[in-house]
Amino acid sequence: MVGATPVDSFDLQGHRGARGLVPENTLAAFAKALEIGVTTLETDLAVTKDGVLVLSHDPTLNPDIVRGPDGVWLTPPRLAIRALTLAELQRYDVGRINPASRYAQTFSRQQPVDGARIPTLASLFELAARSGKAVRFNIETKLSPDKPAETPDAETFARLVVEAVRAAGLAARVTIQSFDWRTLIAAKRLAPEIETVCLTEENTLKDRNEGGNRRPSPWLAGLDPVDYGRSAPRLAAATGCGTWSPNFRELTPALVAEAHGLGLKVVPWTVNDPADLARVIDMGVDGLITDYPDRGREAVRRKGLPLP
Hints:
Helices cover about 30% and strands about 15% of the residues. By secondary structure, it is α/β, with parallel strands linked by helices. It has a single domain (about 10-300), classed as TIM Barrel, CATH 3.20.20.190. A hairpin with a 5-residue loop joins strand 2 and strand 3 (about 55).
């Protein structure tokens, strides 16, 4: 069995594998991240009609990155992965970006891998095992309280993830993260031994206004920010998370210090520019998530921080 990543090393996470270099959430992207030398493979989960956990940032098939069996780019309306069996899903190609999309301009360095399919979570675990690399997995439940029809309910989603992680014997090397904290609370209840990660961004923390009445954000699983001084770290700690993972643009040294004072690790997302990488590392974070693990590793090396 591959050994655990040393706890005192900086946690360099490859976002969706290595999205800046290879098509996102493909086995080729994760292989590239392993080759570069990340400590953690970060990925996203969806669930097929027949209950299989697969790696996809979107609960629906994204026309920016998905071609049909005929090789033609998909067009709206977007088909939910939950409406397809794994066998049906495997007919779609996710090996390159639609050149007509804005996404293609953002990731112009990405090298296509035509014929790539949406992988299963089990296949990612197998890839890492074959590599012999000491690597962790940070897996995100992609669901929204505003779009319940697109995914399984939070309890079911959490149960499927916990069962898959335990079946693979990887509870000590996996974190479950989400913006929708309902799955984090459910997962922690089912598997206290699996660490959870509270993802945040401004929109998921915002109150709702319904008929002139304030309602706490539905992303926070019933927690009211007012009760925690509108502090994202305090909210994350109350959820039982071991790590707080904010948008790096919303992070300050004071917030890092506050989170550390609460016993939380801080791993911001998604940091790509070399100047931003250096600035975020200087805040004293415990790790970071990046589309460019090559840039991330170089930034960590320049700061003299330990990496395995």
